[in-house]
Design goal:
One of its GO terms (cellular component) is cytoplasm. It catalyses: glutathione = L-cysteinylglycine + 5-oxo-L-proline. It holds the Pfam family ChaC. This is Gamma-glutamylcyclotransferase. The structure is a single chain. The protein has about 210 residues and is of the alpha+beta class. The protein has a domain of about 130 residues: Gamma-glutamyl cyclotransferase-like (Hypothetical upf0131 protein ytfp, Roll), CATH 3.10.490. It contains five helices and seven strands, in the order αβββαββαββαα. β6 and β7 form a beta hairpin. α3 crosses α5 and α4 crosses α5. The radius of gyration is 17 Å and the shape is globular.
Length: about 210
């Protein structure tokens, strides 16, 4: 179902974020809820040649890959009334035009046991996308992330902020893929004595 069809049928819509949306949704919303979806795993397999990279050095950002045994934690945002169209227009530019993502409706399970599961809209980049990079080892992904930056900042910031969200909001969840890449990236920084991207102040790792 397309976002506009959803908008016509509902006065309220939930949008699930599992990447940069967890710390920077960029749209107005009524309320938010931390939780997870089942049947998908989060992977740094999608390329980014605009926000966290460029044409010469595309960055690595997360997408969702189907896996019946997996679940992915993130944040769902409820948008209502005029917020629905405004948020979808914003995300069309942020995720679809520049990011290459498609939309799906998924079941979101809130961390708060008092809140019932609900349907949420999620944006997913597939292997059909021309800037999709696909699998690589954690060390290879980390090495790529440490040297890339785009219009919204360095790729390492994206990685660290996502890892921080998981530690602070879902401390009981062990996201092996995410934390392994973070550890490999921080080792690269440590071995190099810290990296300062060109024409940018030193990155403050751990900033929120």
């Amino acid at each position: 179902m397309k976002p506009r069809d959803i908008m016509k049928e509902k006065s309220s819509l939930w949008i699930f974020g599992y990447g940069s949306l967890v710390w920077k949704p960029g749209f107005a919303y009524k309320r938010s809820s931390i939780g997870h979806i089942k049947g998908y795993k989060r992977r740094f397999w999608h390329g980014d040649d605009f926000y966290r990279g460029d044409k010469a050095k595309p960055g690595r950002v997360v997408t969702l890959v189907e896996d019946e045994e997996a679940c992915t934690w993130g944040v769902a945002y409820e948008v209502t009334d005029s917020q629905i169209e405004e948020s979808l227009q914003y995300l069309k530019m942020r995720e679809v035009v520049f990011g290459g993502y498609i939309t799906q409706m998924v079941e979101f399970i809130p961390k708060d046991k008092g809140q019932a599961p609900l349907l949420a809209l999620v944006y997913i980049a597939t292997s059909n996308n021309p800037i999709y990079l696909g699998p690589a080892s954690d060390k290879e992904i980390a090495a790529q992330i440490t040297v890339c930056r785009g219009n919204t900042g360095h790729n390492i910031e994206y990685l660290v902020r996502l890892a921080e969200f998981m530690r602070l909001s879902c401390p009981e969840v062990e996201d092996e893929h995410l934390f392994s890449i973070e550890a490999a990236a921080l080792n690269i920084f440590s071995d190099c004595g810290g990296i300062t991207p060109p024409e940018q102040k030193p990155i403050l790792l751990g900033a929120t």
